Amino acid sequence: GVQVPGEVVPVTGRQLPSIRLILNNGPIEVDRSRSNFDRITRSRFVVSSADIGNDYTVICEVADRPKAAAFMEAAFRVGPACGINIGSSGTIIELTSGRAESYINAINNTNSRIVVCIMATDSKDKYDAIKKHCCIQRPIPSQVILKRTLSNPARMLSVVTKIVMQMNAKMGGELWGVHIPMQKVMYVGIDTYHDSGSARSVGGIVASMNNSLTKFYHRTTWQPSRQELISQMDVVMTDLLRMFKEKNTDYPDRILVFRDGVGDGQLLAVKEIEIRSIK
Question: What residues contact 178, with CB distance under 8 A and at least 6 apart?
Fold first, then answer.
């Protein structure tokens, strides 16, 4: 008994303004029709560069050394052109085996500030093992690349540009910012991670440290298992404010908190415990 109209009903909607990106050489309006950043990634556009230089290591199998060398040469061509400080003389470590353990041993034996791993095959287990090791056992920024990604000479510079941009961001460099109307605001995000196999949960709190929202500071707290509320919020917020003042010589005028992970039944508890602790 349901009848569906044959014509689409027109409605009046809100049209959002164009996004303005803040680059090193001034603001730019994003072209929505193109939906890409090709014309932006030129002419030393990055807001700030991490000091990568030649202090990076490329890890690959012996047969892929030419691709590692080609990557470093391309990185030196595109990086400085974008305003990113990266050289062409990073270290190359050759592996006789493509196992995850070989990559991990090589990572342990390097003193570079960032590692680039070129994998011959698309192995999720190997990728996960490398990333887990670089996040937990040997904290170091890492970039994992598939060999086939570097196999097309016609797209080499375009691909390496995107990789170098990721390396810069992971090491604290600022690629671009967005126009934020309100100034001197500290934006805070809060969530809690629960692992069914662990006796404890982890609370994560991250806060913006500048007006363009390109610098952040974070803290983590241990919680009793399945506890959603952050029990040490007063200590954490004090540390966030201390760091904000250290970076900006003054405290923020406003604090906007984005709280994830709580249901409607926990809102009162958040108000009575977390918000009170923040105040």
Answer: 19, 20, 21, 22, 212, 213
